[in-house]
Design goal:
The protein is α/β, with parallel strands linked by helices. The protein is about 50% helix and about 15% strand. The strands form four sheets. It has a six-stranded parallel beta sheet, sandwiched between helices. A five-stranded antiparallel beta sheet has the order 7-4-3-12-13, covered by helices on one side. A three-stranded antiparallel beta sheet has the order 6-5-8. InterPro entries: FAD-bd_8 (IPR013112), FAD-bd_FR_type (IPR017927), Fe3_Rdtase_TM_dom (IPR013130), Fe_red_NAD-bd_6 (IPR013121), FNR_nucleotide-bd (IPR039261), RBOH/FRE (IPR050369), Riboflavin_synthase-like_b-brl (IPR017938).
C-alpha cells in the first residue's frame, strides 16, 4: 500500500517537474525574439523588476533562477520516494520497443565517446536552441544597428552563456577574442575569466587528465575565478539566467567540504599480488549507496593536497558496516601507498579523509533477465559491487535476480587475484545461494599456460588500530539525504531572497532608486555573491550538524567498542585460479566452480554476447577504449535485439 502511494507521489512530482521545466524551456526559446523583447520582457519587468526589494534583478531571479531551483527541489522529493519504493517491484525490460531503441548506442567512435540515441537527440535539441538563439539575436540586433545605436551600445554584453563542457569554452573563447579586440581599443584589458576557462579546458584532455590527475583536479578550482569574473562581466541580473546549476553545485561542494574535515576509520588493507590494494573502512549502517559508486580519498601522509577517486567494490546491502575501495598501483600517489603498505614495517594507523560516495541515484539492473559485464584489467572493479549487490538481494529479499555473466580479460596470471575481491571477507552465508546464477569467463591474454610459481604468492591483510577521533563513513545528511538536500536548496534560496530584499530595499534602493546608474554593478554583484555563500553555508552546516547529532554518535561509539584487531595475516590463496583448491571458504569454493580460465587468447565478444540467453540482456563494459567501443558496436548492430547497452561512465 505504501509502495503504491509512493508511486503515485512520484508520478505527481514528475508531472510538476515537467510542467516547470517545459515552461522554462519555452522562455529560452522565446528569449531572442522580438515578441519576447517587445511584449514579454516589459511585462515581466513590470511584474518583477519594478520592486524596491529586488529591482531589475527580480526579473531574472523569479523567471529563470527560481523555476530551476524548484525543479531541483522537486527532483530531490522524487528521488526520495524512488529510494523508498519497494525493492520487490521489478519492471522487466520488454524486448524491443521505443525505449529500448532510444538507449542503443548510435555513435561508437568519435570525440564524444559512446553516445546513445537519446543523448544524440538531446544534443541536437541543445544545438538547435543554441543556433536559434544566436541567429535570431544577430538578425534582430543587426536590423536595429545605426551609427548612433552602435555608439550607445558599446558596453552591451552578450547574455547567452549557457553552454556546457567543451562547447562552453569554445563559444566563450570566440566571444572573448572579439571582446579582447574591443578592450584593447579602449585600453580595458580584463579577460581573466576567459584565461581561467581556457586553462581548465586544456587540462580536460585525457593525455593530461590521466597522467597528471592532480593538475587536472586542482586546475578546475579556477572555476571560482571563472564564475567570479563572469558575474562581473555580465552583471548579477543576467547571471541568474544561467546560475541555477552553479548554485546547486555550490551546495554540493560545501557539503563535500564539511564531510572531508573528518578522519575516517580505516579497518584493513588487503594487498594483492597484482599490485592492487583493497582498503576497507568502517561505515554507518544507515549509509546506502548504489553499485558502481566512487569515493574520493585523501591520505595526508602520502599527500595533503591530492584527492583521488576510486571505485567502491562493496555493497551497502551486503556489508552494512563496511565500505571497500580498490586502488591499482599506477601513478606516483598509488605507488607510494602500495610501497608503504607492502613494506615489512608495521603500520598501526593510517589517517584518511574521504568525500562521497558518489554514483547513480539508483540502478535498474533487475529489469533485465540476464546481465553481462565485460571488463579489461582493473576495469573489473565496478562490477564487483554489482555482483555483491545481487548476492545481497538474493539473500535478503529472496526475489529473482538476473543471470550474471562476467567476462574479464587480464594480461598476466597475477591479475587473476582481482577475482578474490568478488566476494567479501564477511557478510556471506555458508555458500552462494542456488538462486545466484553466475558464470565467470576469465581470459589471460599474455600467458599460454598457468605458471607454477604463482601458487606461492600470497594475499596479505593488514589490520589497523582505530582512534577515538576516527569516524565511520556516514551520509552527511543522514538516511533521508534527498529530502534534506531539497530542504537546503529551498531554505538557503529563501534566506538569500529575504536578506537580499532587505539589503536592496534599505541600502541599494535609497542610493540608486532603480536607475542602475549610480550604484555599481560590481559592488552589487559582490553583495549578492556574499549573501548566497552565507545562506548556503548556514543552512548546510545546520543540516549536517543536526543529522550528525541524531544519527552519528551512537553508531561511532558502538563500532569502536566492537572493533577486534586480528594480527597481520597472509592468505595462502594464490594469484592464479590454478590453485583454487587452496581456498578454504565455501562461498569462494562455490565461485571457483563457476569460473572458467582461458590462457593465451582474447575473448570472442561477438560469440559470447550473442550466446547469452534471455529476452532482455543488459550489457555493461569497463576497460580500455577499444574494448568499450567493440562492445557498444556489437550491441548497436542489431544482431541480437535482446542486447541492451547500459551507458554508465566509469572513466576518470
Amino acid at each position: 500500500m505504501d509502495s503504491e502511494r509512493d508511486r503515485d507521489r512520484m508520478e505527481m512530482t514528475k508531472f510538476f517537474m515537467m510542467v516547470v521545466f517545459l515552461g522554462t524551456i519555452m522562455l529560452w526559446i522565446m528569449m531572442p525574439t522580438r515578441t519576447y523583447k517587445n511584449k514579454w520582457q516589459p511585462y515581466m519587468r513590470l511584474k518583477f523588476g519594478a520592486s524596491t526589494y529586488f529591482g531589475a534583478t527580480g526579473t531574472t531571479l523569479f523567471m529563470y533562477m527560481f523555476p530551476m531551483i524548484l525543479v531541483a527541489c522537486l527532483g530531490c522529493v522524487y528521488l526520495h520516494f524512488k529510494k523508498r519504493k519497494s525493492p520487490h517491484h521489478i519492471d522487466r525490460e520488454i524486448k524491443g520497443g521505443v525505449w529500448s531503441a532510444l538507449r542503443k548506442p548510435m555513435l561508437v567512435k568519435g570525440p564524444l565517446g559512446i553516445v546513445s540515441v537519446t543523448e544524440i537527440m538531446f544534443l541536437a535539441m541543445f544545438v538547435a536552441l543554441l543556433l536559434w538563439s544566436f541567429i535570431t539575436y544577430l538578425r534582430n540586433k543587426f536590423a536595429t544597428i545605426t551609427p548612433q545605436s552602435a555608439a550607445a551600445d558599446g558596453q552591451y554584453f552578450i547574455k547567452y552563456h549557457i553552454w556546457l563542457g567543451h562547447m562552453v569554452i569554445a563559444i566563450f573563447t570566440a566571444h572573448g577574442l572579439c571582446y579582447i579586440i574591443y578592450w584593447v581599443s579602449v585600453h580595458e584589458i580584463s579577460q581573466i575569466s576567459l584565461v581561467a576557462g581556457l586553462v581548465m579546458w586544456a587540462t580536460t584532455y585525457p593525455a593530461v587528465r590521466r597522467r597528471f590527475f592532480e593538475v587536472f583536479f586542482y586546475t578546475h578550482y579556477l572555476y571560482i575565478v571563472f564564475m567570479l569574473f563572469f558575474v562581473f562581466h555580465v552583471g548579477i541580473s543576467y547571471t541568474f539566467i544561467s546560475f541555477p546549476g552553479f548554485y546547486i553545485f555550490m551546495v554540493d561542494r560545501f557539503l563535500r567540504f564539511l564531510q572531508s574535515r573528518d578522519n575516517i576509520r580505516l579497518l584493513s588493507a588487503r594487498i594483492l599480488p597484482s599490485d592492487t590494494i583493497e582498503l576497507t573502512f568502517s561505515k554507518n549502517p544507515r549509509l546506502v549507496y548504489s553499485p558502481t559508486s566512487i569515493l574520493f580519498v585523501n591520505i595526508p601522509s602520502i599527500s595533503r593536497l591530492q584527492w583521488h577517486p576510486f571505485t567502491i567494490t562493496s555493497s551497502s546491502n551486503l556489508e552494512a558496516e563496511k565500505l571497500s575501495v580498490v586502488i591499482k598501483r599506477e601513478g606516483k600517489w598509488s605507488t607510494k601507498l602500495y610501497q608503504r603498505l607492502s613494506s615489512s614495517h608495521q603500520i598501526d594507523r593510517l589517517a584518511v579523509s574521504i568525500e562521497g560516495p558518489y554514483g547513480p541515484a539508483s540502478t535498474d539492473f533487475f529489469r533485465h533477465e540476464a546481465l553481462v559485464m565485460v571488463s579489461g584489467g582493473s576495469g573489473i572493479t565496478p562490477f564487483i559491487s554489482v555482483i555483491r549487490d545481487m548476492i545481497a538481494t538474493s539473500q535478503n529479499q529472496k526475489c529473482k535476480i538476473p543471470k550474471i555473466t562476467l567476462i574479464c580479460a587480464f594480461k598476466n596470471s597475477s591479475e587473476i587475484s582481482m577475482l578474490h575481491l568478488v566476494l567479501p571477507l564477511s557478510g556471506l552465508q555458508t555458500e552462494l545461494s542456488s538462486d545466484i546464477n553466475i558464470k565467470i569467463e576469465a581470459f589471460i591474454t599474455r600467458e599460454k599456460e598457468p605458471k607454477s610459481e604463482a601458487t606461492t604468492e600470497q594475499i596479505k591483510t593488514l589490520w589497523f588500530k582505530p582512534s577515538l577521533s576516527d569516524q565511520p563513513i556516514s551520509a552527511i545528511l543522514g538516511p533521508n539525504s534527498w529530502l534534506w538536500l531539497g530542504g537546503i536548496l529551498s531554505s538557503s534560496f529563501l534566506i538569500f531572497m529575504i536578506i537580499i530584499g532587505i539589503i536592496s530595499r534599505y541600502y541599494i534602493y535609497p542610493i540608486d532608486h532603480n536607475t542602475y546608474k549610480i550604484y555599481s554593478w560590481t559592488s552589487e554583484s559582490i553583495i549578492y555573491i556574499l549573501v548566497i555563500c552565507v545562506s548556503i553555508m548556514a543552512t548546510s552546516s545546520a543540516a549536517m550538524f543536526w543529522n550528525k547529532k541524531k544519527y552519528g554518535n551512537n553508531v561511532e561509539t558502538k563500532q569502536v567498542q566492537n572493533v577486534e584487531l586480528p594480527s597481520t595475516t597472509s592468505s595462502p590463496t594464490s594469484c592464479g585460479y590454478n590453485s583454487m583448491r587452496e581456498i578454504e571458504s565455501s562461498p569462494q569454493e562455490s565461485l571457483v566452480q563457476r569460473t572458467s580460465l582461458h590462457y593465451g587468447e582474447r575473448p570472442n565478444l561477438t560469440k559470447l554476447l550473442l550466446g547469452v540467453e534471455g529476452s532482455s540482456v543488459g550489457v555493461l563494459v569497463c576497460g580500455p577504449k577499444k574494448l568499450r567501443q567493440k562492445v557498444a558496436k556489437i550491441c548497436s548492430t542489431g544482431l541480437a535485439k535482446n542486447l541492451h547497452f547500459e551507458s554508465i561512465s566509469f572513466s576518470w
